[in-house]
Known about the structure:
alpha/beta; 5-stranded mixed beta sheet; 5 strands; 38% helix
Amino acid sequence: xxxxxxxxxxxxxxxLSGRFDFNAHRDFRNAYEPLLADAQVRTxxxxxxxxxxxxxxxxxxxxxxRDKVGAVNKALALxxxxxxxxxxxxxxxxxxxxxxx
Length: 101
């Protein structure tokens, strides 16, 4: 998986592409951790447009991120969710846990 960061006016977009699975945990964590400590970032968006595959470990990573973002009083949203990724998130009822745009 590749992670690209785009920051703009208090918002950070993490654009993911490829397979989001356990092998991506280190890259994913290394991408978001500095953003949690950045006082200028108030909103973190996870852009899933380029994700072709998502497994249960990725769901766990998103849940852990949700807790960490909440602990530092920032907002979190999942963006550009479609196809098989959307189906997995719907089955897991992530729409009740995350703002999905």
